[in-house]
């Protein structure tokens, strides 16, 4: 600090065009004292900081080269330096370097986040007995502070890291409570939560959560495959497009959705119809059309009970089939396919299924209305 302060005093004095003697006269000291300040041989008395700052037209903080925290770029640079030390096996040097910066900037949450992350990453570097445990506990302390970061992305990363550290320390309840604090949906948190449930012996809950996690991952994989198929289509690579669409089918066959959700599968099927039709492979296009219709009628499975809006407030079966019908009839398909009797019969089959589903739902809605009327009548009689 002495050297930095001396340089600041000298730079600001020269910027104002003052000699050491002139500055000394302004603050009531000797020119020799100013010389000692600038050469870092001595420091100004605390009582002189404000007069000196006024004489140099700056603040005491500027004189002391003080800032409450570092910029993110500065912290990242310090983190890279410390990481090089850890990677080189210089554990003590890296530890001292990090702890020194943490003492210098105790209120810097981003610095705490970076140092805590480094301690967690290089737990095994020291090779000293008991040091890994000490380093783990220190990493937890730092991450607990870093969870107060204002930036949501950084806060999310800190919370997720802290939960993982709690797991390493076998503080499973604390880990779960930390995951509960994560803002929004976080798939990494769900995966960790399932792992914690397994360690706690809660097998049914762990299985349920892992099943849900698998469903999310499969859905994302299918979306990515569909996106790649669309890219292949734009490039005119029909063979690759067909291979990618077939991969979606294989995923659905190997991991059927227990909820019956086949939306992406139907989109892939429709893309396959368009592809076959575009290549003039009419028989394959017709077979794919019939498959599309059969799947649209089959999913979601179940009768009106539990599937119509009146029963559960969800999306009705008729609505889903109507949506599939609209997808098929509005697709950009050539007349050589859509004017064929077999294609028209397939469409009519889906139309009939929509009408049947609507009739079932209307019947269910009417039944609920009658039941409610009878219940209200009974209540009135009792009164």
UniProtKB/TrEMBL annotation:
SMART domains the UniProt entry points to: HTH_XRE
CDD domains, sorted: HTH_XRE (cd00093)
Keyword Transport: no
Pfam entry (one): TPR_19
InterPro entries (alphabetical): Cro/C1-type_HTH, Lambda_DNA-bd_dom_sf, TPR-like_helical_dom_sf
Domain HTH cro/C1-type: residue ranges: 9-63
Keywords annotated in UniProt: DNA-binding
Name the UniProt record assigns to this protein: Helix-turn-helix domain-containing protein
Organism in which the protein naturally occurs: Allofournierella massiliensis
């Amino acid at each position: 600090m002495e050297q930095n302060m001396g340089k600041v005093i000298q730079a600001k004095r020269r910027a104002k065009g003052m000699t050491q003697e002139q500055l000394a006269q302004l603050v009531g000291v000797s020119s020799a004292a100013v010389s000692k300040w600038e050469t870092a041989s001595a420091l100004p008395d605390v009582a002189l900081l404000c007069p000196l700052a006024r004489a140099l037209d700056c603040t005491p903080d500027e004189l002391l080269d003080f800032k409450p925290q570092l910029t993110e770029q500065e912290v990242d640079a310090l983190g890279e330096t410390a990481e090089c030390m850890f990677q080189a096996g210089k554990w003590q040097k890296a530890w001292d370097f990090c702890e020194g910066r943490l003492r210098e900037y105790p209120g810097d949450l981003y610095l705490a986040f970076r140092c805590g992350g480094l301690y967690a990453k290089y737990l095994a570097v020291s090779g000293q007995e008991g040091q890994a445990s000490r380093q783990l506990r220190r990493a937890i302390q730092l991450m607990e502070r870093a969870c107060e970061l204002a930036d949501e992305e950084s806060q999310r990363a800190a919370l997720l890291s802290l939960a993982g550290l709690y797991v390493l320390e076998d503080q499973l309840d604390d880990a779960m409570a930390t995951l509960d604090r994560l803002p929004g949906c976080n798939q990494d948190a769900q995966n960790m939560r399932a792992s914690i449930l397994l360690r706690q012996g809660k097998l049914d809950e762990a299985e349920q959560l892992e099943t849900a996690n698998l469903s999310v991952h499969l859905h994302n994989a299918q979306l990515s495959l569909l996106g790649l198929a669309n890219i292949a289509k734009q490039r005119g690579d029909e063979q690759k497009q067909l291979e990618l669409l077939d991969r979606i089918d294989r995923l659905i066959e190997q991991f059927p959705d227990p909820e019956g959700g086949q939306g992406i599968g139907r989109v892939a099927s429709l893309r396959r119809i368009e592809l076959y039709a575009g290549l003039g492979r009419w028989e394959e296009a017709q077979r794919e059309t019939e498959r599309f219709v059969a799947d649209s009628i089959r999913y979601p499975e179940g009768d009106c009970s539990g599937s119509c809006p009146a029963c559960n407030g969800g999306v009705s079966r008729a609505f889903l089939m109507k949506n599939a019908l609209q997808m098929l009839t509005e697709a950009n398909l050539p007349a050589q396919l859509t004017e064929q009797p077999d294609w028209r019969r397939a469409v009519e089959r889906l139309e009939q299924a929509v009408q049947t589903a609507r009739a079932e739902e209307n019947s269910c809605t009417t039944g609920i209305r009658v039941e409610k009327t009878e219940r209200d009548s009974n209540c009135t009689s009792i009164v």
